[in-house]
Specification:
Elements (H helix, E strand, L loop, with lengths): L1 H19 L3 H12 L4 H8 L5 H41 L17 H15 L3 E2 L5 E3 H4 L28 E3 L4 H10 L4 E10 L11 E11 L4 H16 L5 E8 L2 E10 L16 E10 L1 H6 L8 E8 H8 L13 H4 L3
Helix pairs in contact: 1-2, 1-4, 2-4, 5-10
The structure holds 3,4-dihydroxyphenylalanine.
Length: about 350
């Protein structure tokens, strides 16, 4: 049938247009010519009205079938082109995550951590072990066992932060690393040669020289025949190992409830090496921490016989040490985490 052949020819042309469209835009532009009202296949649809009913039925069915196939081919081609364009876009925007950046911008240990590690190295080199204890303590470990009964006026030396756990004033954030001494002595029989670095907390407002959370390092030696001379010698040895030979240490009488006798230990100013400058207020010395011979009551509190054993202890602040060593003038810089500050160390 002639009409049928014409329809087939028009369909072939339509399929040619479909497969010939290289882009979605081109396909869209060709659509009126493929199935639109003015397209060949559209014209046939309109011409159906002029046919005899019998012929109209046959030609109509054929035309519908053909149009259906063309329409499906159009949809398929549209989907294919869209997928291709999406693929091309992905390829273009793809990031190579295996690529190694030229400046990886890696971080490093914080100045305080570096300082703790150096201190540990020096003391481990002198034969000390490293011990740790909890930051949340009970009143007994933080005060009582250290010869500071509840009524002791020296408790006011530490502005304490208590935890609200419905246990009265029994649970607190440790105000110093000294409670770790108590824990070590409970767990271990003498001889004890240990240091305990860690975080401590006080009810202080942050300013250039104070922080409510800072770091201390505690030292504890308990053995037979330990004397005050051992304490002085150990601190002096530490001072030159850590700061270099030019820096000396000295002891001044002081008071701590957990040591008797007690002393404050100073080192030569690390900025001027003892000649006097602004940092040391022209004295040539800076105060580092406290120390003394472990009080017999403290030894008794943990079941160590004070008639047989003696010991010494010391404790000092780590943040301030790092501050002095690097000529930093505000302690708060240590913890505001400004990378411009941090990357300098
Ligand atoms: N715990 C004291 C403080 O925070 C420092 C200290 C002094 C520690 C004397 C000691 C010591 O071990 O013997 O101020």
């Amino acid at each position: 049938m002639a009409v049928s052949e014409d329809i087939d020819a028009a369909a072939t042309a339509a399929h040619g247009l479909i497969s010939g469209a290289a882009t979605l835009d081109a396909l869209k532009a060709a659509e009126p010519e493929i199935l639109g009202k003015k397209s060949a296949l559209g014209q046939f649809k309109r011409a159906l009205g002029g046919l005899e009913p019998d012929e109209r039925r046959v030609v109509g069915q054929h035309l519908n079938a053909v149009r259906e196939t063309v329409s499906e081919a159009l949809d398929d081609r549209r989907a294919e082109l869209a997928a291709g364009e999406r693929r091309a876009q992905f390829e273009e925007e793809r990031m190579d995550l295996t690529e190694v950046p030229t400046d990886p911008g890696l971080g490093h240990l914080h100045l305080v951590t570096q300082t703790v590690q150096r201190l540990e190295d020096v003391f481990v080199g002198m034969g000390f072990t490293v011990s740790e204890g909890p930051e949340v303590e009970t009143d007994w470990y933080n005060f009582e066992a250290l010869n500071l009964p509840k009524w002791h006026p020296a408790r006011s030396m530490w502005d304490t932060l208590y935890l609200n756990l419905d246990q009265g004033d029994n649970v607190l954030l440790r105000t110093h690393t000294s409670p770790v001494q108590v824990r070590v002595m409970q767990e271990q029989a003498p001889p004890i040669y240990t240091i305990c670095p860690g975080k401590v907390f006080r009810r202080d407002t942050a300013d250039a020289s104070h922080l409510p959370a800072f770091h201390q390092i505690e030292g504890l030696v308990v053995d037979e025949g330990i004397t005050f001379g051992d304490l002085a010698g150990t601190l002096d040895e530490f001072t030159s190992a850590y700061f270099g030979g030019a820096i000396k240490s000295r002891l001044r009488p002081s008071f701590f409830p957990f040591t008797e006798p007690s002393a404050e230990f100073d080192i030569n100013c690390v900025i001027c090496e003892g000649s006097g400058c602004q940092t040391c207020q022209r004295t040539g010395w800076i105060e580092l921490g406290g120390c003394g011979m472990v009080h017999p009551n403290v030894l008794s509190n943990v079941g160590i016989d004070p008639e047989r054993y003696t010991g010494f202890a010391f404790g000092f602040g780590i943040d301030r040490l790092a501050l002095m060593r690097h000529g930093i003038d505000d302690l708060r810089d240590m913890f505001t985490n400004d990378v411009r500050f941090l990357t300098q160390f």
